[in-house]
Write a sequence for this structure.
C-alpha cells in the first residue's frame, strides 16, 4: 500500500512527529511504501537543520532525514508555514534577503498542492497531530 | 512534482473532507486549514468541509479581531463558493452545545446530526482534520 503522511506538530513539544516516524518505519518494514511526508503547521520545525537535542535524546530531524534518504521518502515542508515560522532553505533565504538558512538538505520546501496531491496519489493519507 | 510521485492523476477524483474542529483564533489551525482547502480547489476534487466541536465558531458572524491584531479571515469563508467549495457541513450537536443556531453563521451550510456526519466521513477517500 502507498502511504502519505501529514505531520502537523513540531518536534519535542509534541509526540506527533515521533509517532509519525514510528508509523513510517513500521509501514516500510512491512513492505509498504511511504511516498511522502508533508510537514505543516508547527510540523515545519521538524526540518530545522540547526536542531541540537541533548545527546541522550533522539534526534527527530536527523532521524527523518535518514529515513528519507534511505527509503526515498519525499520530505516536503510547506513553504508558507515555514516562512512565517522563520524556516528558510538556501534559495528562499537569498530571495528574501536573509543572511542564513536552516532547512535540512534532506527536506525540500514546496506548496500545499503537494499535500493535496499526496491525498490523491496515495492509498491512504495519515495525519499526525492534535 | 518529484520523480517518485509521477503517477498519472488524470481523471482521479477523490472525495476530500476537511474537518475543522478548532476555534478560529487562539491557534493557527483554522487559518492554515483554510489555506489547504483553497489550494485543493485547483485539483478538481470532490471537496467538502465539516465543522465540529469549537470548529463551528469559525463560521460565526460578527467576529472582530481588532483588539487582538490577529488577521480576520471570516471573509474567506464567504469566498469559498467562488472556488466551487459549496459542501459545508455543520454538526448540530456542536452548535447546540455552544448556544448557536444556523442563523449565527455567515454562510449557507447543511446542518446535520453527528451520526449523519459520521456516515458522511466514512464515505470519504481522504479526511484531513485540523
Amino acid at each position: 500500500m502507498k502511504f502519505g503522511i501529514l505531520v502537523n506538530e513540531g518536534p519535542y513539544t509534541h509526540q506527533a512527529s515521533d509517532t509519525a516516524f514510528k508509523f513510517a518505519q513500521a509501514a516500510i518494514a512491512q513492505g509498504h511504501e511511504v511516498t511522502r511526508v508533508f510537514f505543516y503547521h508547527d510540523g515545519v520545525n521538524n526540518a530545522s537543520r540547526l536542531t541540537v537535542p541533548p545527546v541522550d535524546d533522539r534526534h527527530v530531524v536527523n532521524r527523518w532525514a535518514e529515513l528519507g534518504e534511505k527509503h526515498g521518502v519525499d520530505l516536503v515542508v510547506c513553504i508558507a508555514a515555514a516562512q512565517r515560522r522563520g524556516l528558510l532553505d538556501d534559495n528562499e533565504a537569498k530571495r528574501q534577503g536573509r543572511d542564513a538558512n536552516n532547512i535540512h538538505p534532506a527536506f525540500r520546501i514546496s506548496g500545499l498542492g503537494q499535500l493535496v496531491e499526496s491525498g490523491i496519489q496515495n492509498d491512504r493519507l495519515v495525519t499526525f497531530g492534535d | 512534482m518529484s520523480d517518485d510521485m509521477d503517477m498519472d492523476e488524470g481523471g482521479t477524483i477523490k472525495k476530500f473532507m476537511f474537518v475543522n474542529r478548532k476555534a478560529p483564533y487562539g491557534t493557527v489551525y483554522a487559518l492554515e486549514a483554510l489555506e489547504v482547502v483553497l489550494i485543493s480547489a485547483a485539483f478538481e476534487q470532490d471537496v467538502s468541509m465539516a465543522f465540529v466541536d469549537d470548529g463551528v465558531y469559525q463560521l460565526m458572524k460578527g467576529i472582530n479581531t481588532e483588539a487582538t491584531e490577529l488577521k480576520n479571515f471570516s471573509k474567506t469563508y464567504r469566498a469559498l463558493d467562488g472556488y466551487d467549495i459549496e459542501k459545508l457541513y455543520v454538526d448540530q450537536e456542536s452548535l447546540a452545545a455552544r448556544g448557536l443556531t444556523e442563523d449565527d453563521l455567515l454562510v449557507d451550510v447543511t446542518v446535520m446530526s453527528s451520526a449523519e456526519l459520521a456516515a458522511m466521513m466514512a464515505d470519504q477517500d481522504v479526511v484531513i482534520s485540523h
The longest strand of chain B covers residues 15-20. The radius of gyration of chain B is 15 Å. Chain B touches chain A at residues 1-2, 4-5, 7, 9, 12, 14, 16, 28-29, 32, 35-36, 39-40, 42-43, 45, 125-126, 128-130 (CB under 8 Å). Strands of chain B lie at 15-20, 46-51, 87-91, 110-112, 126-129.
